[in-house]
Specification:
Structural class: alpha/beta
Distance between the termini: 48 Å
Number of strands: 17
CATH superfamily of one domain: FAD/NAD(P)-binding domain
Strand content: 25-35%
Largest sheet: 9 strands, mixed
Bound molecules: flavin-adenine dinucleotide
Shape: globular
């Protein structure tokens, strides 16, 4: 197997469930639906379509879960990045409320999919938002009030002392506990989705980069070794799709982001760092996020690279970020550090839509893809089956494009620098 087709070396790969190889596409074939990309979005769409009786073929450039899906923080979040009030200013309050209910359904769907298909991926409930300054606590109070108004009233505000009992860091002034958030092992979730797809009759071809996409009346995906002709397409290449489908790349920016797995801390020390088995993220725009593993390591996510390129001194930068939060870990080394491209939209809401008569896409989950990709795949399957109401609700969220051409990266870096400065104030 070529080097580029191996999964990134991560704690996830080292603790992955056994998985099989799918052969590359060879020759011409037909399907009801052809799917580009075997991340959470492509796989959940394929699974829901197959369960409805469609003949589905998935083409993946590298491996199942090779992209963001197999290397992310595994954190399950409630709602969307923008508040429901903000989404309401774009689509109206009624549609915003319906979108909230879809995001709640996303978490239930994730649990149902994992249990129905017996996916061993360490699904665990409990999420902690950490406030670093009074402004963050005001934002958390607003978020709690909005969620309560929408019927999610199980959250708990924590003061500085309560936060300190849970997280061994001197940095936080308080937090918000959300029992409905949580975490999972993302690579095992992706591998399990692929297994469920195969069991439902989906054909998956790995190492099959799509080089041409026909979104016209007779849709098809073409690779160097063959072509799939289909009645409908699902384009789920996300931040790795590049410029393959004209117009699609401009609504998302691929931003590099990174995770480090520490050596084993041992149970007692790990619990001094993080008392409970919950996922944590702080309230900065460029945020730190972390959780513990069953073998008592800290998985610590931090830093971004707006050029998408990995910083040469990444390990050092990650260490600095971790020690800022947990100075007591100065003697602890990292066993693995890895990164991936996260799919950011201008307004931080997911972007779903159609191209041509029968081609559907979903991308731009803006750091909330673990839960939201599943509902995206589900509503795409509904739309292809003829019930497009819920898909169209997502598709009504308006999206701006990032400036294209050579100015794309500098403009993004400038905008992000502003947010970074705001984090520091
Ligand atoms: C480091 C990191 C941490 C993150 N942490 C979190 C988190 O804690 N919680 C959260 O909710 N979200 C998080 N995210 C975001 C989340 O991982 C993504 O939103 C989600 O995985 C997107 O899934 P996807 O299937 O749309 O895309 P991907 O998983 O990127 O899958 C796209 C697939 O398409 C394939 N592909 C692309 N082009 C082609 C082509 N031409 N032909 C064939 N195949 C192609 C790729 O190889 C890839 O496998 C994180 C992302 C990163 C990178």
């Amino acid at each position: 197997m070529s080097e580029g087709a191996r999964h990134v070396d991560s704690w996830y790969l080292r603790t992955a469930n056994p998985f099989t190889d799918d052969p590359p596409l060879a020759g011409e074939t037909r399907a009801d639906v052809a799917v580009l990309g075997a991340g959470f979005t492509g796989l959940t769409a394929a699974l829901h379509l197959a369960l409805r009786g469609f003949k589905v073929t998935v083409l993946e450039a590298r491996r199942v879960g090779w992209g963001a899906s197999g290397r992310n923080g595994g954190q399950i979040l409630t709602g969307y990045n923008p508040s429901i009030a903000t989404i309401g200013t774009w689509v109206g309050p009624e549609d915003a409320r319906r979108l909230w209910h879809l995001s709640q359904e996303a978490k239930r769907l994730l649990t149902d999919t994992i249990s129905r298909h017996g996916i061993a991926c360490g699904l665990t409930r409990g999420y902690l938002f950490a406030g670093l300054k009074p402004r963050h606590m005001a934002a958390l109070r607003d978020m709690q009030a909005e969620w309560r108004g929408l019927g999610h009233d199980g959250t708990q505000l924590l003061d500085q002392a309560q936060m300190r009992e849970r997280v061994g860091s001197p940095r936080y002034v308080g937090g918000l506990y959300d029992p409905e958030g949580g975490h999972l092992h993302p690579l095992n979730y992706a591998l399990g989705l692929a297994e469920a797809c195969r069991a439902a009759g989906v054909t998956i071809h790995e190492q099959s980069p799509v080089v041409a996409v026909d979104t016209g009346a007779a849709p098809s995906l073409t690779t160097a070794g063959g072509r799939v002709r289909a009645k409908a397409l699902v384009i789920a290449g996300n931040a790795l799709l590049g410029k393959l489908v004209p117009g699609l790349g401009h609504t998302i920016a691929p931003v590099g982001t990174y995770i480090a797995a520490t050596e084993r801390l041992g149970r007692a020390r790990m619990r001094q760092v993080l008392r409970d088995d919950v996922a944590v993220c702080d309230m900065n725009f460029v945020l730190n996020y972390y959780r513990r593993t069953p073998d008592d390591r800290l998985l610590f996510g931090a830093r971004v690279s707006y050029s998408g390129r990995e910083p040469p001194n990444l390990k050092h930068l990650m260490r600095r970020s971790m020690l800022h939060v947990f100075p007591q870990l100065a003697d602890i080394r990292f066993d693995q550090v890895w990164g991936g491209l996260v799919d950011i939209t201008v307004n931080r809401a997911p972007h779903l839509g159609r191209i041509g008569p029968a081609s559907y896409f979903a991308h731009g989950f803006s750091g909330q893809g673990v839960a939201l990709t599943g509902i995206a795949g589900h509503v795409i399957a509904e739309a292809i089956a003829g019930q497009a109401e819920r898909f169209d609700l997502f598709a009504r969220i308006p999206h701006a494009t990032f400036p294209g051409g050579p100015l794309r990266t500098p403009a993004l870096m400038l905008a992000m620098l502003w947010y970074r400065l705001r984090d520091m104030i």
